[in-house]
Amino acid sequence: MYRIIITPTSDSDMEIYLFRHGIAEDGHAGAPDSARELTDEGRRKVASVVRLARNAGLRPSLILTSPYTRARQTAQIAADELEYKGHIVAAESLVPYGAPEGAWNTVREHGDESSVLLAGHEPHLSRFTAYLLNAPSLRLDMKKAAIVRIDLETLRARPHGSLRWMIIPKMIA
Predict the structure, then answer these.
(1) Which contacts (CB < 8 Å, 24+ apart) does range 76-85 have?
(2) Has residue 132 been placed in a domain?
(3) pLDDT tens digits for 120-162?
(4) What is the DSSP string of 135-159?
(5) In a domain, 146, yes or no
(6) Which of 21, 55, 62, 65 lies at 20 to 30 Å from 4 by C-alpha?
(7) Which among 126, 60, 117, 123 is positioned nearest to 95, based on CA atoms?
(8) Domain of residue 55, CATH code
(9) Residues ≥6 apart with Cβ < 8 Å to 116
């Protein structure tokens, strides 16, 4: 006789949600890339992805964001849609060309949190996803306003996460 054991997905030490910012305006001459804002379409897509992710269990105990305007706006939309009551914390390690190890150290600094949402950019989030899954050759096409859930059992020096799901805007009718 075989026994089937179902383990709930909430047994992880930490749920990590990597959220790429939505569609942003084109850059303006003389203005830094970091100042680009979300377009109206970008805001709508971010909000719709957050609503679907909420239905899939997204309840962050902490929101971290790149200091770039479009990522901060994405984090704020998520906070509003989720009725998040905490502070949104800016983290330099989440800039577009940040190192995965830097973002991992930022996550580990908040090891007492159960669920962390990180709002950021490409190519950083794809590389960070591969890093969290201990799959350096993984190639991921992280679309604008996409969100990925990764569960971590421990917060050791090198992560070994499990991919739970990914939501992209095209999934929403």
Answers:
(1) 77/22, 77/43, 77/46, 77/47, 77/50, 78/19, 78/46, 78/50, 78/117, 78/119, 81/47, 81/50, 81/51, 81/54, 82/50, 82/54, 82/58, 84/60
(2) no
(3) 999 999 999 999 999 989 999 899 999 999 999 888 888 989 9
(4) -TT------TT-EEEEEES---SS-
(5) no
(6) 55
(7) 123
(8) 3.40.50.1240
(9) 14, 15, 16, 17, 60, 61, 62, 63, 64, 107, 110
In a domain, 84, yes or no: yes
Residue 20 lies in a domain: yes
The pTM of the full predicted model, rounded to 2 decimals, is 0.91
The Cα–Cα gap between 168 and 121 comes to 14
Q: Which 8-state DSSP code applies to residue 114?
A: S
Which amino acid, one-letter code, is at 164?
Answer: R
The whole domain housing 92 covers 11-25+35-119+153-171
**Whole-number Å distance between alpha carbons of 10 and 19:** 20
Give the rounded distance of the alpha carbon of 71 from its chain centre.
Answer: 10
Element (H, E) at 77: helix 69-82
